[in-house]
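Hey, resending since the last one bounced:
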Amino acid sequence: SQTSREERLVLLRAIQAATRDAAITMGAGHEAGALLPGLYADVIAVRGDLLRHPALLQAVDIVIRRGSRVR
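The structure tokens again:
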């Protein structure tokens, strides 16, 4: 089901807390936590808008870990 704007903002904040903010907290903010050249990045890809359909996290299509596709 679709989510409201407020629910999407909460989900976005949760994703940021689990990724970017976690990297900063662990002291790795200078080398991780963003999709920029030269930084470490773990990336997932889903088919659709994750902020509108959070259940897509249960159907991840692509996983990239430190620049290499693992799924």
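The radius of gyration is 13 Å.

Sorry for the duplicate.
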